[in-house]
Backbone:
């Protein structure tokens, strides 16, 4: 990616933690500062007036909330990426090992972090939720759940497929079926307080070159 002019002020991006590896690569050399976290927390901060120029969410509901709260430019909103869920672990285990064993399973906060919301909905849709519900460890982001399993603190995690690509120390045990009524989409938008330089960064995120990077890191088209 070609850098913008060095004199441009830093553009602040609030982005879902699951985007980190790919987005760091896309924005390498650009005058940006990126704050990663759970989409719900970031959306609330944007609505409370945090100095963000761009909001990149892992969940349409939280982008809806930011838009309804007047914090983003609705005309700039675009569903840029998609993702899917996987169960990861360290051992050559099967889904049955996850469902019938006693190992804990990490994922995001079930009520507010997108990966946790998606995980619960998907496992409920497949009739597997009751088997793991009592063993769920809730974290504040997809990457936090991934880290618990990568460090061996929790044997399994339900995370995004892109997270599995980013962490070679874990392996995919099971691809979680999608829930058609709750697609995993990543909307992108400029905030209502976006600086002049934010438009150029926003356009780079929409570019074909950026798309190639996101694809290489496990993201799909919406």
Residues:
């Amino acid at each position: 990616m070609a850098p913008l002019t060095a004199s441009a002020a830093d553009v602040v991006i609030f982005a879902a933690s699951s985007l980190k590896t790919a987005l760091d690569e896309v924005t390498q050399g650009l005058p940006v500062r990126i704050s990663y976290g759970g989409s719900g927390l970031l959306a609330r901060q944007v609505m409370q007036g945090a100095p963000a120029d761009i909001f990149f969410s892992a969940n349409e509901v939280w982008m809806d909330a930011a838009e309804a709260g007047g914090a983003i430019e609705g005309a700039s909103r675009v569903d840029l990426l998609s993702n899917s869920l996987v169960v990861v672990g360290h051992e050559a285990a099967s889904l049955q090992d996850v469902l019938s064993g006693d190992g804990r399973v990490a994922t995001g906060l079930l009520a507010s972090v997108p990966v946790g919301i998606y995980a619960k909905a998907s496992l409920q849709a497949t009739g597997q939720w009751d088997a793991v519900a009592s063993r769920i460890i809730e974290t504040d982001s997809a990457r936090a759940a991934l880290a618990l399993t990568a460090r061996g603190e929790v044997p399994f995690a339900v995370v995004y497929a892109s997270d599995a690509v980013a962490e070679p120390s874990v392996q995919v045990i099971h691809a979680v079926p999608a829930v058609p009524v709750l697609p995993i989409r990543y909307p992108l938008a400029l905030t209502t307080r976006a600086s002049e330089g934010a438009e150029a960064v926003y356009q780079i995120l929409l570019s074909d070159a950026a798309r190639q990077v996101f694809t290489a890191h496990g993201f799909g088209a919406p």
